[in-house]
């Protein structure tokens, strides 16, 4: 019993995000003119999975008390690369996918290498590398366009057995293949330790540098998977700075809504997935309730601000004022 | 204490002279000018230099505010839409109130920016939210407000004559007004940071807020004031930018966030707060403006510009911005 209470307390943020998502999605579906059909679910999940992947990517550096402001740019870079490389036969398409994922992981590794060995702050490093990755994306695709292997794309954005959206299955597979093994590996637990207290982690023999390197590399990889899925949705590539910026910002918001602490050492990528779902459902809700488009940006902004302000509840629990400054 | 007993390092001018980041930043500026001169003689002409300084002035004013916030260990990501807000509110007020509006335009623009800063400061100081995420949210809210404002009320977007004059006029010996304004803002910032108790508190909060609090500093007030100054500076730059391009438009502040932060950090200010001086920020601003200008003159495509821009910032930071090895 005590164990259960501990687990609920430990995953409070995650449970809140799941609850919020279920409530909002129910409202959305019950007000949707068609209701919950496979097509509605597929469209919703295709959009939501993109942000969910970028939010997962953002979670890993945040857990080490870092931040990756280049996730949106890596996302866009993967989109542009995929629109050039993932073409031709199915075999060539898969080769292209491998190259795109490798490029994403490399971009993440470069971030990590500069942060770990160059000893620069994550914020400023990823701002600068983000500009570089965006430049490369522009170089690959100066104007919107390109193509993608349509068999793979149709499969990835369609339905399995005519009911289950494939994008959700892909997301689940990534959780099972990437996140859970990572979470339980030595380097994954090291990432949490580094986020809680880097010096204590170092003194205890935790591989601090390798943990950070892996966190940023995996972040690049996950963002690139997101970029691939974007290409499968749009059948084209576009080096758009606004899209990159929006995804970076929303990824941070999703991480916070999902219960991960921006101060590191606390949270999970699964929370971020539901945080992303919540953010996406807000947009869909605005659509079904037919809100005046002029009001939409303001409404989204206020919801975003209100969502992150939930973090202020922490202040109420603090007894000793000095802990405020931690 | 008599003047002669002061250690050398406490005299600001001498301390600046030995700052490694400053030396590197200023030598980079000279190198870039010389390199540019090899490409075209124009780079060393007084007209080109004055024009560059005029363009740097807008970034310089924004960076002054951004630096106050970075010095206390926070960051202001609401700069883009605060710049736009300042410009749009100033032009709109001029349209709504006619003659009086022309007089009120600039103060109202700056005031609106200061209000955004106030909200940022309240959120960061009292709600104890990470500044990065709270100012990001504010940025989205201000963007929403501006979309509603322009779409719903169709306000005037022309700059007033006064705004135009302040941004592009050159009445005194051909020195651009914008540059003079930056000099004024810069002098005020240097005065605030080095000659007032407030300045000392800013550095104290940036170094260790708990220690500053225990020493009797009202740290929340310091945080709020820094954000107010940042918002006001960004909005003021927006007003001038509207004067420069004769109108206010959506997203006009977007290209200024990264350069402003990069300029402050390249100038040797620690992104974690507590260390940095304004001379460095001046160097950083000029450096960024020159870099952008040279890349534009060389007709480098946007892709190459972004790559070089990022690489140069990284290279300079690796040269002098590296953290201590954290092993105790």
Task: Supply the key terms.
heterodimer, A: mainly alpha, two-stranded antiparallel ribbon, B: 328 residues, globular, transmembrane (chain A), cell inner membrane (chain A), Autoinducer 2 import system permease protein LsrC (chain A), ABC_transp_permease (chain A), transport (chain A)
Shape, principal axes of CA atoms of chain B:
globular
Topology, number of strands of chain B: 0
Structural class of chain A: mainly alpha
Mean pLDDT of chain B: 85
Low-confidence stretches of chain B: 1-6
Class of chain B in CATH?
Answer: Mainly Alpha
Q: Give a short account of the largest sheet of chain A.
A: 2 strands, antiparallel
Radius of gyration computed on alpha carbons of chain A: 20 Å
Amino-to-carboxy terminus distance of chain B: 36 Å
Subcellular location (chain B): Cell membrane
Organism (chain B): Phyllobacterium trifolii
Pfam families (chain B): BPD_transp_2
Keywords (chain B): Cell membrane, Membrane, Transmembrane, Transmembrane helix
How would you characterize the overall build of this protein?
The complex is a heterodimer of chains A (326) and B (328). Chain A has one domain (37-274). In chain A, 75% of the residues lie in helices and 1% in strands. Chain A has helices at residues 2-10, 12-31, 38-63, 71-85, 90-116, 122-140, 150-157, 166-184, 186-196, 198-203, 208-234, 241-257, 269-288, 296-309, 313-317; strands spanning 159-160, 164-165. In chain A, a hairpin with a 3-residue loop joins strand 1 and strand 2 (164-165). In chain A, helix 3 (38-63) crosses helix 13 (269-288), helix 4 (71-85) crosses helix 11 and helix 7 (150-157) packs across helix 11 (208-234). The mean pLDDT of chain A is 87. Chain B has 328 residues and is mainly α. Chain B has helices at 12-17, 20-39, 46-71, 79-125, 131-153, 161-168, 177-195, 197-207, 209-214, 219-244, 257-266, 278-297, 302-320. Residues 1-6 of chain B have low confidence and may be disordered. Chain B has 13 helices and no strands. Chain B has one domain: ABC transporter involved in vitamin B12 uptake, BtuC (Orthogonal Bundle). Chains A and B meet through helix 6, helix 10, helix 12 and helix 14 of A and helix 5, helix 9, helix 11 and helix 13 of B. Chain A: The complex is composed of two ATP-binding proteins (LsrA), two transmembrane proteins (LsrC and LsrD) and a solute-binding protein (LsrB).
């Amino acid at each position: 019993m005590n164990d259960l209470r501990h687990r609920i307390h430990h995953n409070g943020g995650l449970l809140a995000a799941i609850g919020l998502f279920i409530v909002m999605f129910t409202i959305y579906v019950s007000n949707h003119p068609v209701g919950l059909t496979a097509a509605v679910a597929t469209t919703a999940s295709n959009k939501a999975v993109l942000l969910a992947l970028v939010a997962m990517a953002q979670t890993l550096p945040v857990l080490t008390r870092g931040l990756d402001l280049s996730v949106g740019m890596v996302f866009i870079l993967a989109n542009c690369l995929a629109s050039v490389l993932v073409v031709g036969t199915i075999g060539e398409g898969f080769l292209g996918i491998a190259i795109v994922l490798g490029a994403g992981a490399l971009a993440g590794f470069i971030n990590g290498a500069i942060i770990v060995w160059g000893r620069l702050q994550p914020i400023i490093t990823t701002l600068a590398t983000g500009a570089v990755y965006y430049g490369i994306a522009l170089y690959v695709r100066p104007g919107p366009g390109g193509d993608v292997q349509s068999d793979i794309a149709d499969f990835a954005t369609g339905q399995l057995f005519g009911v289950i959206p494939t994008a959700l299955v892909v997301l689940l597979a990534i959780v099972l293949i990437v996140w859970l093994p990572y979470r339980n590996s030595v380097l994954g637990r090291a990432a949490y330790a580094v986020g809680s207290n880097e010096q204590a982690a170092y003194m205890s023999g935790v591989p601090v540098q390798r943990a950070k390197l892996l966190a940023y590399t995996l972040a690049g990889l996950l963002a690139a998977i997101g970029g691939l899925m974007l290409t499968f949705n749009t059948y084209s590539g576009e080096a758009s700075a606004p899209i990159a910026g929006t995804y970076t910002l929303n990824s941070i918001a999703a991480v916070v809504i999902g219960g991960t602490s921006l101060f590191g050492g606390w949270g999970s990528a699964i929370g971020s997935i539901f945080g992303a779902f919540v953010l996406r459902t807000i947009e869909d809700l605005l659509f079904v309730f037919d809100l005046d488009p002029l009001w939409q940006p303001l409404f989204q902004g206020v919801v975003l601000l209100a969502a992150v302000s939930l973090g202020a509840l922490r202040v109420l629990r603090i007894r000793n004022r000095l802990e405020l400054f931690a | 204490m008599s003047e002669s007993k002061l250690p050398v390092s406490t005299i600001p001018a001498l301390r600046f002279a030995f700052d490694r980041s400053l030396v590197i930043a200023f030598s980079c500026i000279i190198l870039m000018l010389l390199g540019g001169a090899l490409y075209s003689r124009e780079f060393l002409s007084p007209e080109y230099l004055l024009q560059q300084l005029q363009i740097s002035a807008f970034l310089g004013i924004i960076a002054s505010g951004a630096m106050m916030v970075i010095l206390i260990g926070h960051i202001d990501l609401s700069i883009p839409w605060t710049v736009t807000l300042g410009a749009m509110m100033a032009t709109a007020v001029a349209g709504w109130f006619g003659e009086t509006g022309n007089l009120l335009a600039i103060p109202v623009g700056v005031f609106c920016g200061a209000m955004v800063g106030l909200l940022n400061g309240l959120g960061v100081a009292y709600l104890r939210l990470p500044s990065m995420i709270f100012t990001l949210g504010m940025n989205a809210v201000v963007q929403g407000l501006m979309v509603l404002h322009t779409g719903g009320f169709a306000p005037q977007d022309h700059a007033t004559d006064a705004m135009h004059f302040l941004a592009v006029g050159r009445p005194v010996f051909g020195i651009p007004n914008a540059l003079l304004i930056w000099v004024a803002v810069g002098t005020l910032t240097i005065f605030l940071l080095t000659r007032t108790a407030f300045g000392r508190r800013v550095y104290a909060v940036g170094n260790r807020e708990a220690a500053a609090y225990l020493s009797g500093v009202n740290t929340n007030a310091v945080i709020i004031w820094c954000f107010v100054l940042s918002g006001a500076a960004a909005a003021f730059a927006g007003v001038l930018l509207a004067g420069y391009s004769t109108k206010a438009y959506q997203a006009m502040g977007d290209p200024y966030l990264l350069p402003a932060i990069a300029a402050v950090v390249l100038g040797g200010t620690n992104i974690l707060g507590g260390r940095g001086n304004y001379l460095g920020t001046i160097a950083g601003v000029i450096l960024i403006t020159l870099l952008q200008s040279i890349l534009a003159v060389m007709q480098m495509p946007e892709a190459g510009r972004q790559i070089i821009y990022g690489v140069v910032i990284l290279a300079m930071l690796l040269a002098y911005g590296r953290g201590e090895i954290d092993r105790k």
